[in-house]
Amino acid sequence: MKLKVGILGATGMVGQRFIQYLKNHPWFEIEGLMASSASAGKKYRDAAKWYLKEEIPEGISDMIVEEMDIKVAKEHDLDIVFSAIPAEIAKEIEENFAKEIPVFSNTSTYRMEDDIPLVVPEVNPEHLNLIEIQKKKRNWNGFIVTNPNCSTIGLVIPLKPVMDNFGIESVNVTTMQALSGAGYEGVPSMAILDNMVPFIKNEEEKMESESLKILGKFESAGIKFADFDVFASCNRIMVLDGHTEAAFVKTEKDFEIDEIKKVLRKFHGEPQKLKLPTAPENPIVVMEKDDRPQPRLDRDLGNGMIVSVGRIRKKNEKLLKFICLSHNTIRGAAGASVLNAELAYKKRLFV
Ligand code: NAP
User: Fold this and answer.
1) 324 among known catalytic residues
2) H or E element that contains 44
3) 103 - beta bridge partners?
4) Strand, helix or coil at 309?
5) Which of 276, 320, 326, 336 could pair with 154 in a Cys bridge, judged by C-beta atoms 3.0 to 4.6 Å apart?
6) Does residue 60 sit in helix, strand or coil?
7) Domain range annotation of the chain
8) Closest ligand 1 atom, CA of 40?
9) Ligand 1 atom nearest to 185, measured from its CA
10) pLDDT tens, position by position, for the chain (351 residues)?
11) 150-327 has CATH 2.60.40.3580 classification
12) What is the pTM of this model?
């Protein structure tokens, strides 16, 4: 029997990606759609700001959106919820759900708390060990597992094999981020048409701190953060989906470009070993053409779960440059959360 899942923030940009990823899921079945009180009581098709090319799935379109209340989870007997709600309201709402059932969250609110796992399954699956510590400390029946900010996730996946094989001294990254990353109401058309905005509130801080937690080690006392600097400059560009990032990495050991390509291509993790339903066969694709990756051409690779890496160059000894691209609402949000839930379920951390 499939697990019954609910979606908090089901009408938003990330919420609809959850629907897309969960509609034919072999283990999970959507039983509850929750959003703001402005949407509650409406049919999903009337409440959602649907922006995906495919139609709203049959069976979802007529579902009634409900208030974001733990009572809804109890009425539907939900086993878990996925959360895609604004950070400002997540503190109390996610806690109310986590007291009872597991919450897999996209929201930044809890990411950096000591006992909350911030997980990219290919990179740091062992951080899920924090669940036990969290449940004891907070006395919750459920728990919260978070996935990182959408630009962080596309960076840490290629950084992990580089770090494991050559060590990292520092990372400098400049992002070119898609509009969907700001949510439906995010960036006014008058601000972005014919333009680029060199500021995304709190984004640089998130990239600089979250990367070090994810690339850190799980120890019995908690997470020991990775010990190098990350410098980020974040920009909004006029692309619908897909964050592109230009990374400059100072490594500890010298490398050859072919060695970098080899470790990126070989990289895989627990989702691939366990053949989790949402896992791409290879989390990284290395591109050889000078003008790739590009958002419009490459963001949907592996159903949006692959990070494309190209323009791999060596500037000086121990100085690596590359461009990476990932789908922000899939690998950077809903797909990431679903993969976290699949991993936690497969490891029998709930139900
Ligand atoms: P969005 O399109 O603005 O959707 C927000 C969702 O939250 C909608 O379902 C909305 O319901 C609901 N909501 C808003 N205010 C609420 C309130 N006061 N009470 C209850 N529900 C409320 O935002 P999004 O882009 O999907 O992002 C959702 C979360 O995921 C954010 O925390 C964001 O930072 C994070 N995230 C986004 C991305 C991305 O690429 N977009 C990537 C990673 C993480 P109504 O439709 O009823 O207003």
Assistant:
1) no
2) helix 44-47
3) 81, 144
4) strand
5) 326
6) coil
7) 3-149+334-346, 150-327
8) 47
9) 3
10) 999 999 999 999 999 999 999 999 999 999 999 999 999 999 999 999 899 999 999 999 999 999 999 999 999 999 999 999 999 999 999 999 999 999 999 999 999 999 999 999 999 999 999 999 999 999 999 999 999 999 999 999 999 999 999 999 999 999 999 999 998 889 999 999 999 999 999 999 999 999 999 999 999 889 999 999 999 999 999 999 999 999 999 999 999 999 999 999 999 999 999 999 999 999 999 999 999 999 999 999 999 999 999 999 999 999 999 999 999 999 999 999 999 999 999 999 998
11) no
12) 0.97
